[in-house]
Amino acid sequence: MPDPMHFDRHADLYDRARPPYPDALWQRLTSLGLLAAEHRALDLGAGTGQATERLVEAGMRVTAVEPGAALAVRLRERVPSARVLQTSAEEAELAPGSFDLVTVATAIHWFDLDAVLPKLHAALAPGGRLAVWRNVYGDTSVPPTPFRRRLEAIVAQRDAPPRPGPGELETARWARLLEADGLFATTEVAEFHWRIDLDADAVRGLFTTFSDWSADEAEEAARAVRDLGGTVTEHYLTPLIVLARVG
Ligand SMILES: C[S@@+](CC[C@H](N)C(=O)[O-])C[C@H]1O[C@@H](n2cnc3c(N)ncnc32)[C@H](O)[C@@H]1O
After folding, report:
1. Domains and CATH numbers, the chain
2. Given ligand 1 and candidates 42, 53, 66, 102, which is best to mutate, with the most ligand atoms within 8 Å of its CB?
């Protein structure tokens, strides 16, 4: 069973190895008016601050929630001007109406939505927005590359059937889940397709950060990169869902 604290055990590597979110995502958030200077943002499941940092750079007043102790240390170092709460989304104490924007970057699948969504509804001011996105490490709309076929062969060796990774989770289904109890209404769904070249070290590091990949499997993936010439082009996807607070 994947463990959400996996990331905390690899905090330094996580900080180095996870690629940033694509510029097109940030441009869309800006054009939607969500990254407004002096607005109050809450970044949930902030990790080492990939998203938190961009919110601060946009001039927002940012609170970041991260339960992992080692991750919270890196987060404070990387984004010293953010207020960091080392706790879970479920347990965070948030004053009513105290945020204009909540962001959740590659973390919503770890949350108990029954507990978290009412809390976010209360913490957002009227007119507030919830922006949820994730990096999907493997864009299934692109024909499989030789490297992808090697990855499939690694996963096929597992005893347990593969748990659906972020790549298999449907954006539309997540949007329905997030608005199911009537507290939020979807205003925007978008998908950003992008690509990145990775060498063997980058692949080993990135795959080690995945909660459902073992160290041996990450090493096998790095070997595949070396076999394929030393660099592979990976096709990734970043789905975005923006919801408005109802009421
Ligand atoms: C894949 S990482 C994403 C981190 C960061 N948002 C980013 O974009 O790089 C998932 C994060 O969610 C955090 N997390 C897991 N369960 C959580 C919970 N119940 N409440 C808040 N954060 C949680 C993990 O500690 C981890 O930092």
Report:
1. 6-138+165-194+236-245 (3.40.50.150)
2. 66
